[in-house]
Amino acid sequence: MEVAALRGRLLPEAPDGYQRAHDQIPQDLLDAQRSAGVRRWLIFRDGLDLFHVAECDDFDESMRLLAGDPINQAWQRQMAPYKQQLGDPGNTERRLQLIYERDLWLPELNDGQLS
């Protein structure tokens, strides 16, 4: 499983509408995401800044599949009026670089031995 984080930004007038849309995600969109290998998707908001965390079998492949899915395309069109463009036209999220990861549930290795 792969975890990916993305950053986006809402337009100043958009937070309430964006929240309402996410309060009622269509089941066919959830099914399309699941079929594309998305296991979990979280969105955090700080003011106008959005932070997405996606858990996927393979993030790039999931995004490729969803980009060609008419259900996801309709959802993206519905979300576009809420989000600022980042760089290229049509791009509203930017993938964040992972700089630290540690699984704190795994035991420590001490000279190759579990402690």
Can you tag this structure with a few keywords?
4-stranded antiparallel sheet, two-stranded antiparallel ribbon, alpha+beta
Q: Order of strands across the biggest sheet?
A: 2-3-1-4
The residue-averaged pLDDT reads: 91
The share of residues in extended strands comes to 25-35%
The CATH C-level class name? Alpha Beta
Principal-axis shape equals: globular
Percentage of helical residues? 25-40%
Low-pLDDT stretches are none
Backbone CA Rg: 17 Å
Quote the CATH topology.
Answer: Alpha-Beta Plaits
Structural class: alpha+beta
The SSE string, one letter per element, is EHHEEHHEEE
Q: How many separate domains make up the residues?
A: 1
Question: Would you report the number of β strands?
Answer: 6
Largest sheet entry: 4 strands, antiparallel
In DSSP terms (H or I, runs of 4 or more residues), the helix count works out at: 4
So, CATH architecture? 2-Layer Sandwich
N- and C-termini, Cα separation: 26 Å
Q: How would you portray this structure in words?
A:
With 115 residues, this protein is of the alpha+beta class. It has a single domain, classed as Alpha-Beta Plaits (2-Layer Sandwich), CATH 3.30.70. 32% of the residues lie in helices and 28% in strands. It contains 4 helices and 6 strands. The strands form 2 sheets. A 4-stranded antiparallel beta sheet has the order 2-3-1-4. Strand 2 (38-46) and strand 3 (49-56) form a beta hairpin. The longest helix has 10 residues, at 70-79. 11% of the residues are buried.
